[in-house]
Design goal:
13 strands; AS_sf; 14 helices; 441 residues; Amidase; catalytic activity; alpha/beta; Amidase signature (AS) enzymes
Length: 441
């Protein structure tokens, strides 16, 4: 069993584990499994070895929260000496001269950046593949690892690294975490501070892990909130439960609803109050999300100098539409949804839903398909996630059960009001204690 990030950091700080050997072990696992899993766009083998040696020699080693922990970084953020490809051959490929805020925080905490994980082009779809590979669910390789943080989820679920960085614009942490049976936390807006917000404030950075404790540790570093590293089970909470697919009211696969019922029973036994309740999802919320989903990548492609003629056909379609919808992005639509969400969370502390609207998509060369072929499964599987990006509320996915026909996890999503990240992690830890899940393959 691969050690958790908490266990590795504790062992390195105590002098019981060597950061160089920990890194060598991770690189060996990557070399053995990644040709099948497809998690990494780039493995930084030599650089990681050098970083591990530097960490071992640091005078502040005993105070580093991520001392010697191998971490995978989503291929969307600046890492010194590397370029962020964003899943595309069309973007600028000049290496970064300095770390961005995410890599800088990870390094300062003592992490070893072992590689950059695969993403779909411009992170548009919740299925991860590019011309060089497909990110697969390590337990069921016929299924996608999800997206857009699919490479990060595949790396953690396969035990290649204990934790990984991801970003979430409409579910891009929670969806792959749920597909791969992991804990994936989307922090609230502004919790992980950075110079610019992606997708008009909907996209945020967050952790993917096998345990709530590891997710809390990584979040504490990314958010520069060291007090969040300690997970505590909260007192009794008012938990609303809803399995109604927002907007479409599409039928929910029975195993996904069963996971919600199981989790609700576990939390009720733990002393929390459970009530069936569904927020009112106005159509304006859906149109506001879609406008930003199209416009965010379009603005990025233009502003960051992507060669639009070299984008994948489905991405070119998305960008063309996004240039039009950018003028429709209005703060008023978000404010209307916020007023509804605030009223709902005045009566409930937490909302529990399924994490996915459908089973995960199959692992395919989705980038070769047209826009409608990719968009239909994307919007169906992501039915429960995107509105919380628009609201800026924190949300987490937690494994609960197993699908009866496939080796796939069934997971729930927990949502809280702003500032509720510790609450969500505490509830996730309570579910883990009552119902332990397999950490890796």
């Amino acid at each position: 069993m691969v050690l958790t990030a908490v266990e590795i950091a504790r062992g390195v700080r105590a002098g019981q584990l060597d950061p160089v050997q920990v890194t060598e072990n991770a690189l060996a696992r990557i070399a053995a499994a990644d040709p099948v899993v497809g998690a990494f766009r780039r493995v930084r083998a030599e650089q990681a070895r050098a970083e591990a040696a530097e960490i071992a020699a640091r005078p502040d080693l005993a105070r580093l929260p991520l001392a010697g922990v191998p971490v995978a970084v989503k291929d969307v953020t600046a890492v010194a000496g590397e370029f962020a490809a964003w899943g595309s051959i069309a973007g600028p490929h000049a290496p970064a001269t300095a770390d961005g805020v995410i890599a800088a925080r990870l390094r300062a905490a003592g992490a070893v950046l072992v590689g950059l994980t695969r993403v779909p082009e411009l992170c548009i779809f919740p299925m991860t593949d590019d011309p060089d590979g497909v990110a697969r669910n390590p337990r069921e390789p016929a299924f996608s690892a999800g997206g857009s943080s699919g490479g990060s989820a595949a790396a953690v679920a396969a035990g290649l690294v204990p934790i990984a960085h991801g970003t979430d614009g409409l579910g891009s942490i929670r969806l792959p975490a749920a597909m791969c049976g992991l804990v994936g936390l989307k922090p609230g807006r502004g919790v992980v501070r950075e110079p610019e917000e992606g997708w008009f404030g909907m996209s945020v950075h967050g952790p993917i892990a096998t345990t709530p404790a590891d997710a809390a540790l990584l979040l504490s570093v990314l958010a520069e909130r060291p007090e969040w590293a300690a997970v505590t089970e909260p007192g009794p909470q008012r938990i609303a439960v809803s399995t109604q697919v927002p907007f479409t009211h599409a039928p929910l696969p029975r195993p996904l609803g069963a996971a919600v019922a199981q989790a609700a029973g576990l939390l009720e036994t733990a002393g929390h109050s459970i009530a069936d309740a569904t927020p009112k999802y106005p159509l304006s919320t859906l149109t506001a999300m879609l406008a930003r989903w199209f416009a965010g990548p379009a603005v990025q492609a233009v502003d960051e100098g992507f060669d639009l003629a070299r984008l994948q056909p489905r991405t070119r379609t998305h960008v063309r539409v996004g240039k039009v919808t950018a003028r429709w992005v209005r703060e008023s639509s978000r404010v209307k949804w916020l007023s509804i969400a605030e009223a709902f969370f005045a009566e409930h502390d937490v909302l529990m839903t399924p994490a996915l609207g459908t089973l995960p998509p199959k692992a395919r060369r989705w980038h070769r398909r047209g826009w409608p072929a990719a968009a239909l499964p994307a919007t169906r599987v992501a039915g429960f996630t995107g509105m919380w990006n628009l609201a800026g509320y924190p949300a987490i996915t937690v494994p609960i059960g197993r699908h009866p026909s496939y080796d796939l996890a069934t997971c729930v999503q927990l949502v809280a009001a702003p500032g509720g990240e510790p609450l969500l992690l505490g509830l996730a830890a309570a579910l883990e204690a009552a119902n332990p899940w397999p950490r890796t393959v």
